[in-house]
């Protein structure tokens, strides 16, 4: 343990946090990274709670009532945390809360919850109600299951308790709570003897799939479904992006599940495999390589030569169509250094390939919910020296961005201002974005946003911050590594260099004229402001 800490003292952080930050190791060497633990107290973690994990998975179910049983503050975590779009009814965009007060905490909130369900069902007539428990509910011991069971019998619809008390784990536990709720919606498919006997390779039967772990952020899934439909495949449901209670109930009719967000949906995919015999494949729909793999693996699974030919035809047509723009941007951004910090490991892994297609180098990569096997795969995919971090906090990210000389950070909205304050370009890949990044057109959108972010002249006019390190390693002519101080005029105190600091450098040139009149492309902006209605019951 002592040796490991000495090797990975990459940033100035809490001693207990050091095992969570490492560098890519040489081949066949185990990555010494701690992960999959609860966040360290006092480390100002980026990781969210159980309730938030459950909410981000379930909230894109568009025709459901999402009722938060707890204080009104928790209801602020609502539909817009995912930016999920709907092609039909949008009941999910109204947030409901029982708005528990002090007296409810003392005397219990079960009666208030029961009344809230009755009122909401009478107003909206939903096909399903999800009731989320919060920290305070877990503490006072309200019997959610009993209230929901009574309400379900009374209204003849599923009223499903989501056991998501925030304090009892982390975001990954929230994913499981959401999947447990979805299980109760999935119905056993009707018996079909003819379909059961038919071979998978039959050209006469239309195969059916589910896409698990796609939340239709900015309309992503609308760019993916047509690709499978052109291959002669029916997509029953995308869980949970743009999904309805009825579509989810049919999920067990599928022949195959494609799992994109492995962190949130592998648990459900394994359950469906055990319960209904539906196999699953991991897939990604971002970047040319991963889209190609997804289509080819699906065609290979069904064993249809016609489907394989259709997949190859789609790939040839689409790649030829977008490649001129990809090549143009590649010439502008190749050699740039990217930092990746994602909620889940699946997105992090697919971004590595996306940046490789642009000729960019990944110098930092981290996630909030990665497990050991995820980080091992990440380690195989990046170059030696790449920093790998689990559950980072803002101070760690800021120091890493400077030390690794990143030109671009790709992360979620919380990390945006860390990058901006350091004068580093930023691209939002998380659930808050308003532009599709999946599919072929989505990848074009992504590379254009990367180009617009990195190439913006604003970086010439803003404060640039550079780290003055305590010491840097430089190689002398004989090949030996020696420590050399680089800060001119640095003073030693007690025989040691001063702690690394950040200095500001403001460009002396006037670049304001270059920025004048330059606007980001309209599709990268919120053109229509949409506001959620907070309904207090």
Automatic annotation (TrEMBL):
Function: This protein may play a role in the biosynthesis of the prosthetic group of nitrogenase (FeMo cofactor).
Name of the featured protein: Nitrogenase iron-molybdenum cofactor biosynthesis protein NifE
Keyword Flavoprotein: no
Pathway: Cofactor biosynthesis; Fe-Mo cofactor biosynthesis
Entry's family note: Belongs to the NifD/NifK/NifE/NifN family.
Transmembrane segments: none
GO MF terms, alphabetically ordered: nitrogenase activity
GO-annotated biological processes: protein-containing complex assembly
Entry annotated with the keyword Signal: no
Pfam families per record: Oxidored_nitro
Domain named Nitrogenase/oxidoreductase component: residues: 49-453
Keyword line: Nitrogen fixation
InterPro entries in UniProt: Nase/OxRdtase_comp1 (IPR000510), Nase_comp1_CS (IPR000318), NifE (IPR005973), NifE-like (IPR049939)
């Amino acid at each position: 343990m002592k040796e490991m800490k000495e090797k990975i003292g990459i940033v100035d952080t809490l001693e207990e946090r050091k095992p969570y930050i490492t560098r890519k190791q040489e081949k066949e060497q185990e990555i010494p990274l701690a992960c999959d633990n609860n966040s360290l107290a006092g480390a100002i973690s980026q990781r969210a709670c159980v309730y938030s994990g459950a909410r981000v998975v379930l909230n894109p179910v568009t025709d459901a009532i999402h009722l938060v049983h707890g204080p009104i503050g928790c209801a602020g975590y609502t539909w817009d945390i995912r930016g999920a779009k709907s092609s039909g009814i949008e009941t999910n965009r109204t947030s409901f809360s029982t708005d528990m007060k002090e007296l409810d905490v003392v005397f219990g909130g079960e009666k208030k919850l029961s009344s809230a369900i009755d009122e909401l069902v009478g107003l909206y007539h939903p096909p399903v109600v999800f009731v989320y428990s919060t920290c305070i509910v877990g503490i006072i011991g309200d019997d959610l299951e009993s209230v929901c069971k009574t309400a379900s019998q009374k209204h003849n619809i599923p009223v499903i308790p989501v056991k998501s008390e925030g304090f009892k784990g982390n975001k990954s536990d929230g994913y499981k709570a959401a999947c447990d709720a979805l299980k109760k919606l999935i119905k056993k498919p009707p018996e079909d003897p003819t379909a059961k006997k038919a071979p998978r390779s039959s050209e006469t039967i239309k195969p059916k799939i589910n896409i698990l772990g796609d939340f239709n952020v900015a309309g992503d899934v609308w760019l993916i479904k047509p690709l499978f439909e052109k291959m002669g495949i029916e997509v029953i449901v995308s869980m949970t992006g743009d999904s309805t209670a009825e579509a989810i109930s049919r999920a067990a009719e599928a022949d195959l599940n494609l799992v994109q967000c492995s962190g949130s949906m592998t648990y459900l995919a394994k359950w469906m495999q055990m319960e209904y015999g539906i196999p699953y494949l991991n897939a990604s729909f971002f970047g040319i390589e991963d889209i190609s793999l997804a289509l080819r693996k699906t065609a290979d699974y069904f064993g249809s030569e016609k489907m394989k030919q259709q997949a190859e035809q789609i790939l040839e047509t689409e790649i030829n169509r977008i490649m001129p723009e990809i090549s143009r941007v590649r010439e502008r951004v190749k050699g740039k250094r990217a930092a990746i910090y994602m909620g889940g490991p699946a997105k992090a892994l697919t971004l590595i390939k996306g940046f490789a297609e642009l000729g960019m180098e990944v110098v930092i990569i981290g996630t909030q919910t990665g497990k050991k096997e995820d980080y091992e795969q990440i380690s195989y995919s990046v170059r030696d020296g790449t920093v790998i971090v689990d559950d980072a906090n803002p101070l760690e990210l800021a120091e890493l961005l400077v030390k690794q000389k990143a030109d671009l950070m790709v992360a979620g909205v919380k990390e945006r201002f860390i990058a901006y304050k350091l004068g580093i370009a930023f691209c939002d890949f998380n659930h808050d974005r308003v532009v599709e990044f999946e599919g072929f057109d989505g990848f074009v959108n992504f590379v254009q946003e990367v180009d617009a972010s990195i190439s913006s002249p604003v970086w010439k006019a803003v404060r640039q911050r550079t780290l003055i390190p305590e010491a840097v390693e430089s190689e002398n002519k004989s090949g030996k590594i020696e420590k050399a101080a680089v800060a001119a005029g640095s003073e030693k105190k007690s025989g040691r260099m001063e702690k690394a600091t950040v200095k500001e450098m403001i460009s002396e040139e006037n670049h304001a004229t270059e920025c004048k009149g330059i606007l980001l492309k309209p599709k990268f902006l919120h053109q229509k402001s949409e506001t959620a209605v907070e309904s207090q019951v």
